[in-house]
Amino acid sequence: MSDADTSGGAPTLRERKKLRTRRALVSEALRRFTERGFAETTLDEVVEAVEVSQRTFFRNFASKEAVALAPEQELWAAYTAAFAELPPGGTAQSDYREALFAAVLAMDEDWAARFRACRALAERTPALAGHSLRDCAETTDRVLELAAARHPVARPEDGVRQRLLLELMLSAWRWAVHDWLLADAPGSAPGAGADGDAGTGDGADGRAELVARTRRALTLLPEVAALAADA
């Protein structure tokens, strides 16, 4: 799935050119932010390297934070769209999970590498971490609105249950992403995350690995919920 693939039809030549420019800006920005630091890199340096104007940059992104977090935003947009397109018949819990997995697996082949750089940068840059949490919270609210239409609640506690289920699933996702990043951290075994499992890198395997790590984290949620209830 691409940043511009929202209409369901084949992108026009203009849309493809816009997407190439957007991707070039993201890739160059992430490379420079990673090598030199987020605060130390200026927008002038990014746009000059891509050979576009600041006006073109701001037609695509609202800020430095937005371009740095673009791969994550791509995923949240895809997640919301995938949830809205789910067939009827599932539970809220299965809908949350399957829409996320569908969104991850449908991302383009280069997305995992961009996402890895984006998340590694956010984990060591407080300003980006705050923006990332805000974006996740906004996505949570949008998905809960869609879930309320698909699974109307009769009691207030049912609405709380729906929110908690989504929050728990997203916590499992965040752990899976963090563990995936650890797989390539200096000093770690090649391809191994915190759970000791071998990683498979980026591309199609990277997307599948993210889903697999999230599935493993989800299996722990009943135990975690039981511990929380006993606290």
From TrEMBL:
Q: Which residues bind DNA?
A: 42-61
Q: Which Pfam families match?
A: TetR_N
> Which InterPro entries does the entry mention?
Homeodomain-like_sf, HTH-type_TetR-like_transc_reg, HTH_TetR
Picking any one GO molecular function of the record gives: DNA-binding transcription factor activity
Q: Which PANTHER family match?
A: HTH-TYPE TRANSCRIPTIONAL REGULATOR RUTR, MYCOFACTOCIN BIOSYNTHESIS TRANSCRIPTIONAL REGULATOR MFTR-RELATED
Task: Tell me what this protein is called.
Answer: Transcriptional regulator, TetR family
HTH tetR-type domain boundaries: 19-79
What keywords tag this UniProt record? DNA-binding, Transcription, Transcription regulation
Which PROSITE patterns does the entry mention? Answer: HTH_TETR_2
